[in-house]
Write a structure and sequence with these properties.
Layout lengths: L1 H30 L1 H25 L13 H8 L6 H18 L4 H18 L10 H34 L8
Length: about 180
């Protein structure tokens, strides 16, 4: 029995650690954007690797997610998901890899990766404790803050470029 209490304690420590991590990432997304992007790159890269490994080695373990999932998700996991676990999870892993790569990009690729990350995080939130809820929503919020910061910086740099162009090519009076 003591070993079960120890495992329970480890699970709760992991759960709390994940949520503290998400709060720290939320802070970094506002004040340390490059660090936040690096962390998100690492997180999505790790998730892609872990999901690929588990989908190929022990796909049945994903059925456990139904234990804490919302009823609609639970119904899907124990029903339609069972026969397609491996291809579905491998598809998710590819998407996670693309999101990770997008965190290293700029412009529209970064923005598309942010939106994909936000959608992904919101989509896994109903898995409950297996997704360390509310961590996915905190991650989505952090990604959204990065996206807004990037859009503001892009807008500012576009305005600076426009100002430079107008300064170079301003109308000159014609000499008499």
């Amino acid at each position: 029995m003591d070993s079960l209490k120890f495992l329970d304690m480890i699970s709760w420590a992991f759960y709390l650690g994940c949520n503290v991590f998400a709060v720290c990432l939320l802070w970094a997304s506002k004040s340390r954007q490059p660090l936040a992007r690096l962390i998100l790159f690492s997180l999505f890269l790790f998730a892609a690797g872990a999901n690929t490994y588990i989908a190929l080695d022990a796909p049945w373990s994903y059925r456990d997610f139904a234990d804490t999932a919302m009823p609609l998700y639970k119904q899907f996991i124990v029903g339609a998901f069972i026969p397609i676990i491996t291809p579905m999870v491998l598809t998710i892993a590819i998407c996670q890899l693309l999101i990770a790569v997008a965190m290293t990009a700029t412009g529209q690729i970064f923005q598309a990766g942010c939106w994909a990350g936000i959608i992904f995080c919101i989509a896994i939130a109903p898995l409950g404790l297996y997704a360390a809820f509310p961590m996915p929503l905190l991650l989505a919020w952090a990604i959204f803050r990065l996206l807004r910061t990037d859009k503001d910086q892009t807008k500012d740099s576009n305005m600076q470029r426009l100002n430079q162009i107008t300064k170079k090519h301003h109308a000159r009076p014609i000499a008499n």
